Amino acid sequence: MCGFCGEIRFDEIPVDLGALSAMSAAMIPRGPDGHGFWQQGRVALAHRRLSIIDLSNHAAQPMVDSELGLTVAFNGCIYNYAELRAQLQGKGYRFFSQGDTEVVLKAFHAWGGDCVERFHGMFACAISERDSGRVTLIRDRLGIKPLYYAEVKGGMRFASTLPALLAGGGIATDIDPVALHYYMHFHAVVPAPHTILSGVRKLPPATIRTIEPDGRCHDRTYWEPIFETRPEERGLGFEDWQERTLASLRTAVERRLVADVDVGVLLSGGLDSSLIVGLLAEQGQQGLNTFSVGFETVGKEVGDEFQYSDIIARHYGTTHHKIQVDSATRLLPELPNCVRAMAEPMVSHDAIGFYLLSQEVAKHVKVVQSGQGADEIFAGYHWYPPMVGSQSPEVDYARAFCDRDEEDYRRAVDSRFHGEDHSRAFIAAHFARAGAGAPVDKALRLDQQIMLVDDPVKRVDNMTMAWGLEARVPFLDHELVELAARMPDEYKLCDDGKGVLKAIGRKIIPSEVIDRPKGYFPVPALKYLRGEVLETVRDLVHSRRARERGLFQSAYVDELLAAPDDHITPLRGSKLWQVALLEMWLQEQGV
């Protein structure tokens, strides 16, 4: 929910309120229900509100508590806010609103930065202290809610989206060479703190940044799952882990019903979203709104999974909404709008699917639950089983996961971007960290902390918030993530991956959506580029702005254009679309 931005000055120059206003205006889609500004001395905050909990003006932001000397701008939802509110009232705190924002503010006063350890939810916030002049930036454990920042002369700005920072002006927009390497190797995933632009950075997940009045900063990482079974859990069998996982997942789904508006479900027809529907039905939810999207078939690539989402919708009697998207009449015209809504360039084909789906969903509900994260938490991807017993896990991971090798990268990009193999060095460094011993666990940790945050999670946030829709992801409940990390790998890897979830699913949902080939959110027109889509891409990569930018070598681009279907990445993405998407994003952002 919502979007916020702010500026902190470390000199005597006043806050640029014009820039702050422009930044706030850029986030209207994230918060169409209200807006507010606040300034005190060298700190100013702005907020765009999407009303989900406490719909009254009492919960408006930025929220000021004069008695405590604190002001907060907050984006997200604290699912256990009612419990925390009761604890804080027991400590003598008085409340003037009924929502979770005020709980964040008073929890910070009561427990300092350690308050985050009590939060169940998704959140990013900025808290300004009146007396000390200190500002604290916080991001949730799994980076579900975004937070970008940029240094400006004599100060710092921050915002929920990168385009909002661009709207404020004064930001360096040259391409970050390290980020470009990540983009071209990790199918557009750029790990924090980098972004594709050298002048913008992002706060890593599970991070508390304290900013002193003189500009000194201190970061603290407050959470990281440990991939090790506890001593008391080592005797547990498969049935025991099923019971614990099901109990934790039930809690996660129930927590994400907290709202003063209706909650729907994005139903792909796969195991993960179907499980959410089944558990909601089990908890007594009736007349549930469910939503699916599909595209036309290209060649042998089927563009929808309606046959499976229909099974779940019929079984549970949901009010089901299906959106069939035609590439010529809907995908192409909306593609620039979708790309403009991306906080960073995201090459995954299904971004446009989520964008168009969210447009329809927002007509019916303001909150949805979604199944993102299950594959990364419960080992659902094909590259995990080969990691078992690997003698060179970082090499095997890169072979399966990376879009290209270093030779291909040097052929693709202009020579000014040639240098070190940053991506494989990043994988090796991450795999070498303590806290995950087995090769599979090293891969899972990397995917959870890096790929998940800056691909599926960011995609869902950006595409839903483009339409004032809040998405909640129960598989990323941090207690469920911790439980899965402690679970022996064989219970995740069995049954061709996600074994424990499949076993749970067979007890709850129709087996037809479980015992079938693994699907994904297909958009064949952006994988196999042809017809009008190919011509659009051709015009884009040959445009004057693309030539002047000179990111890619023309011979390489022409090679991709000559035979797009021959240049597919190991993870089934189009190398041509990867090149075109970056150029489209830069143009749509005015860079």
What do these coordinates show?
- This protein is of the alpha+beta class and 591 residues long.
- It has 23 helices and 17 strands.
- The protein is 40% helix and 16% strand.
- A hairpin with a 2-residue loop joins strand 2 (34-40) and strand 3.
- The two termini are 27 Å apart.
The average pLDDT is 92
Query: Unreliable segments (pLDDT under 50, ≥5 consecutive)?
Result: none
How many beta strands in the DSSP annotation? 17
Shape: globular
Distance between the termini: 27 Å
Biggest sheet, spatial arrangement of strands: 2-3-1-9-8-10
Helix coverage percent of residues? 25-40%
Question: How does the helix and strand content classify structurally?
Answer: alpha+beta
Largest sheet: 6 strands, antiparallel
Strand content: 15-25%
Number of helices: 23
Task: Determine Rg (CA atoms, Å).
Answer: 23 Å
Annotation keywords:
591 residues; alpha+beta; 6-stranded antiparallel β-sheet; 23 helices; globular
Short summary of the structure?
This protein is α+β, with helices and mostly antiparallel strands and 591 residues long.
